[in-house]
Give the backbone structure.
Amino acid sequence: MSVLASVLAATEGHVELPFPPIVFALIAVVFFAVAGFITWSYRDVANRHSAKAAKWAATHDVHGQPDRTGADH
């Protein structure tokens, strides 16, 4: 007898869920919507301080350094 068959044979009847299945789906939808909103709220964060970024770029030779990604151009 396989392990799955043994587990199924050992269970006694079916288990009652604390909520209807649709409630679990709604909880998942709300969770992913909130997580998506949090992720969306971080869009374009680097450009919020463009004056500071421009000042940093002017004082550092970014374009003269070799490409560290390993890609050949």
